[in-house]
C-alpha cells in the first residue's frame, strides 16, 4: 500500500519548467522544478471541491494528468523497461507498447492515489549529479505518511530546455528495473506482440 501511494505521487507530481531563450543549461535546478509541481498536485488532491462525485473526481484526474504530461518521459521509461529486448520491437510495436504502458501506469496509480491520499508531506533533500553527465541528476526526497518516512529518488535529465523523469526509486526499488524484470521473463520465450497483448489485457482489467 505505502509503496503504491508513493509511486504514484512520484508519477503525478511534476511538470518540467521550460527554460526561455537559448540557454544551454537549466536556469532552475531539478529540485525546484519537482518541488513546484509536487505542491501543485498536493493542492489538487487536498481540494474539497473534488469530493462531490464521479464527475469531480474525473476533473481532478485530468488536472493531475496535466501535471504529468511533459515531465515524465514515458517513451524513455518504456524503452528502459524493455532493456536489451527493445531491439526486437518494430517501430510500430514500440509505439503501441509505449501508449499502452503509459495508460497502464497512469490508470493503475491515479485511481489509487485519489482514493488514498492522506496529506503526505514531502521534504527535498539534495541533488546528486551524475559523475560524467552534467545534464543528469537524482533528486532525493523524503515522503512522510502516517508516521513513516519513505525515501523517493527521481532520476532526471535535462534536454531541450526542460527536466524530465526517466526512473523513480521508492525505498531503493527502481520502477524501471521492476518492470524490466517482469517484461524480460515474458520476452525470453514470447514475442513483442505477446507482451503488447498482455499489457493491453492488464489495462482492460483496470478500466
Query: What best-fitting shape do the alpha-carbon axes yield?
Result: globular
Q: What structural class is derived from the secondary structure elements? A: alpha+beta
Q: Approximately how much beta-strand content do the residues carry?
A: 15-25%
The name CATH uses for the topology is: Nuclear Transport Factor 2, Chain: A
Query: Radius of gyration, rounded?
Result: 17 Å
Low-pLDDT regions: 1-27
CATH superfamily: Tgt2/MlaC
Number of domains: 1
Largest sheet: 5 strands, antiparallel
The ordered H/E elements are HHHHHEEEEEHH
**What is the β-strand count?**
5
Strand order in the largest sheet: 1-2-3-4-5
Total helical segments: 7
CATH class: Alpha Beta
Helicity range of the residues? 40-55%
Provide a descriptive summary of the structure in words:
With 207 residues, the protein is α+β, with helices and mostly antiparallel strands. The protein has a single domain, classed as Nuclear Transport Factor 2, Chain: A. It is 51% helix and 20% strand. The chain has a five-stranded antiparallel sheet. Helix 2 packs antiparallel against helix 3, helix 4 packs across helix 5 and helix 4 packs across helix 6. The chain is globular, with a radius of gyration of 17 Å. The two termini are 20 Å apart.
Task: Detail the topology: elements first, then pairings.
Layout: H1 2-12, H2 30-46, H3 54-68, H4 74-82, H5 91-116, E1 121-129, E2 136-145, E3 148-159, E4 162-170, E5 173-174, H6 175-187, H7 192-206
Antiparallel strand pairs: 1-2, 2-3, 3-4, 4-5
Helix pairs in contact: 1-5, 2-3, 3-5, 4-5, 4-6, 5-7
Amino acid at each position: 500500500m505505502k509503496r503504491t501511494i508513493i509511486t504514484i505521487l512520484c508519477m503525478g507530481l511534476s511538470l518540467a519548467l521550460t527554460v526561455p531563450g537559448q540557454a544551454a543549461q537549466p536556469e532552475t535546478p531539478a529540485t525546484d522544478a519537482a518541488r513546484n509541481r509536487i505542491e501543485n498536485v498536493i493542492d489538487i488532491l487536498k481540494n474539497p471541491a473534488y469530493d462531490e462525485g464521479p464527475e469531480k473526481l474525473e476533473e481532478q484526474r485530468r488536472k493531475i494528468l496535466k501535471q504529468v504530461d511533459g515531465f515524465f518521459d514515458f517513451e524513455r521509461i518504456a524503452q528502459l523497461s524493455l532493456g536489451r529486448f527493445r531491439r526486437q520491437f518494430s517501430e510500430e510495436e514500440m509505439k503501441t507498447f509505449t501508449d499502452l504502458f503509459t495508460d497502464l501506469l497512469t490508470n493503475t496509480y491515479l485511481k489509487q492515489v485519489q482514493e488514498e491520499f492522506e496529506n503526505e508531506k514531502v521534504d527535498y533533500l539534495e541533488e546528486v549529479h551524475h559523475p560524467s553527465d552534467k545534464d543528469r541528476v537524482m533528486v532525493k526526497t523524503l515522503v512522510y505518511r502516517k508516521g513513516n518516512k519513505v525515501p523517493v529518488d527521481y532520476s532526471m535529465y535535462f534536454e531541450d530546455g526542460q527536466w524530465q523523469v526517466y526512473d523513480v526509486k521508492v525505498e531503493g526499488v527502481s520502477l524501471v528495473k521492476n518492470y524490466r524484470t517482469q517484461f524480460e521473463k515474458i520476452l525470453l520465450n514470447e514475442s513483442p506482440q505477446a507482451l503488447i497483448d498482455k499489457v493491453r489485457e492488464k489495462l482492460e482489467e483496470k478500466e
